[in-house]
Known about the structure:
Oligomer: single chain
Shape: globular
Largest sheet: 7 strands, mixed
Low-confidence stretches: none
Number of strands: 15
Order of helices and strands: HHHHHEHHEHEEEHEHEHEHEHEEHEEEEH
Strand content: 5-15%
Strand order of the largest sheet: 1-9-8-7-6-2-3
Mean pLDDT: 95
Bound molecules: pyridoxal-5'-phosphate
Helix content: 40-55%
Amino acid sequence: xxxxxxxxxxxxxxxxxxxxxxxxxxxxxxxxxxxxxLVEELPWQTSDAISVLRxxxxxxxPYCKNEASAHFMGFGDTGNDTAALAxxxxxxxxxxxxxxxxxxxxSATFIDITVVRxxxxxxxxxxxxxxxxxxxxxxxxVVTSGGTMSNTVAMMLARERKxxxxxxxxVGNPRRFKVLVPEGIGHYSVRSAMAWIGLGDQIVSVPTxxxxxxxxxxxxxxxxxxGSVMSVVAYAGxxxxxxxxxxxxxxxxxxxxxxxxxxxxxxxxxLLCGFSESLQKKLLGISTFDSITVDPHKVMDIPYTMSAxxxxxxxxxxxxxxxxxxxxxxxxxLGQMTPFVGSREWSSLKLWMMMRSYGRSGLxxxxxxxxxxxxxxxxxxxxxxxxxxxxxPDLVAVAFLYLPHDYDKSSVRVQDINRANQWIHKQMLERGxxxxxxxxxxxxxxxxxxxxxxxPLRFMAINGRLTKEHIDGMLNYVLALGKxxxxxxxxx
Length: 492
Ligand SMILES: *Cc1c(COP(=O)(O)O)cnc(C)c1O
């Protein structure tokens, strides 16, 4: 390992400079150009690590997307927290394997368990006193690789609730395992999860209103599918507008019809509400759900990847336990409760470091800062005649449209609005100076045309480097691109 210090010093300097750089991209190239430059045969000759590092610096790094840049406002995955970065690096070094405890990860296992308990606390699940923890089955959650895996584990739990023993016996009649999701705002991972766990496509999409379940429609769907609903999935912050559903009302309704249905809340984004007392009320009812997905790599500035599935009843995880000679059936072997995974990296150390350094008060401040910035953005959008938000921000995202100059709601031409916004987004991607996300969604609040498919731009206030000046800069950029679109249209 000689020279390890210089190589690692250089790697760290390179990484830090990358994160601190202002722009989103240092260089852009087409997929074909990058393919031709990078896909190559393994060289015969040996190189020292420093020269490999230099090669990476020159040929690979300049094309990497920097979500830590304050110009990047499309998502929240900044990976920016210094303590979390330190945790990620140390986890690489100490190479613990979370599959087993006593030999493989004597202390790391308990950090994993601690982090799960902290996350449970944020969403309002209660924890037993630490001295009463007897084994992993008392933890009440599992650390996973991402929201997709957490949702998949949740669907497995729902399946075992619906038909106990399916894990051993296989699926009988898949049509008895229906899952209700809100139409047009659900995350694809639930549908994928159903396919992966052998249930096929049993998704029932329920109409929405204001990016939440239409509760009458939900009641109707529950009655129409009586006896064959395995789970109802609700979003505490959907992946588009981050609207938080009326979780307490969903719980009341579902339980009044069928107490066996597995209620799953996807709080990939909603976890943020747990940071601050003023936001916690938005999660009202979530702690009565059977399971909750949280995605710290989206809302807590920690590097990829780390998510958790939290369960109301810790015992429920026993229904999907795996046993083998390799995963020792010992009290503290986490491998028993992580389906699909054998050896497991210590991803929770990043979050442990982040949360330890912030503390409760720090998390509260973090949430308040983000809420202030999204409020500012929303105000700016709503006072700008050419812009309109498609929803009031419930969390830290706001999706909005640029309105071309001849816009008039009485004679709306949605396709013109869409064309302008899609062009703006395409230019943003090509030029790479500022970044907002774009998706298609039904105009659920009747902002331009009721129910029409629209293509808004989506801003998110998570990056701690973001200031009001950045937000002004981004909005001015959108407006300038809009003008450019209009003059181009006039010419053609
Ligand atoms: C991002 C997201 C997921 C998937 O999470 P990954 O970490 O990307 O696997 C699931 N649900 C919602 C609501 C999300 O926003």
